[in-house]
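hey so i finally got around to running the thing on that chain from the lab meeting. sorry it took forever, my laptop kept dying and i had to restart like 3 times. anyway pasting the input first so we r on the same page abt which one it is
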Amino acid sequence: MTVRALILLGIATMYFISLWFSQTEESRRALALTEAASADDYVQLDIRITGIDPVKALLYERIRLSPRGTLAIDRNRPAEDLTLLLNSVAGQQTIHFAKGERIEPVDAAVNLVGDNNKYPLDIYRADLDVLVSKKVARAPLGVPFVGPEPLVDPTEPGGLVVGAGDLEQSVPLPVRERVDASIPQFKFKGTVTHDDVKKLTQTHIAARRANSVIFSSVVIMVTMMGLAVSITAMAIKATRPGAQFDLLPLSLSISLIFGLPALRNTQPGVPGVGVLGDYVSFIWASLLVSLSAIALAWAWIFKTPQRTSDGKTRPDTESAPEIRDRN
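ok and heres what got predicted. didnt touch it at all, straight out
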């Protein structure tokens, strides 16, 4: 009784601890970056990560641009013609904001670098490169343009490439970023850097599966392997020489063949079959259960029938309990 009480107490403790972790998970997986202003006149960029798609390798973001200081008529209207350059791979990379007109949020999607086949230990990286500039008069003829030469190509595919032509009639402006990310099933980290050579503000985002997702996936994988090993042990016991044959392990094996895929798909955000977690549990569990079912089926086929004293065949007492009771 003491052991049973301790087991029940341990299960209850784990249950309430999991509830507490679930309630406070957002504070551990969310990202909030805020920069200090580097000048009195600057452009505020509020970046909100709205989605992450490991299958399409895309990170979705919503950008709100707000001028400050002499660059602003008010919080939503610029006092200058502004241009936003960003490395979006879906939609426009160049967005113009006319003087005096209301600034609307911009949706962008950037490349996501990672390997979802390592689920649930997959890690992803994404970079959002932005450059905000204001329009200026063209330089007089005969005066060479003093802006930068075409910059070095980005080291990561999908990065923003800025050439001299992009700044021929504009000058870069100071940028201050605020980055927020809070998406269920993912944990985020990030940094913001300013590249004076490339004239870019770069936001580096790193994402991985949340701790709750990893824990749930591990529990489900252990459960699948536990069920498969248990069925295999039952099959070995049922097919040993001299043992009474029982169809219960066979029925359980057939049921589990169809139940394992449903159990696997309860893992949060799991990709298609073939990820790392499948080679740890699901594929091997399915193989063990299938081999057990085949072995039990053939053991039943080649089972030697029992005979009575007069030479007649009688059914197995383990597989025909109603005849045993009648006798």
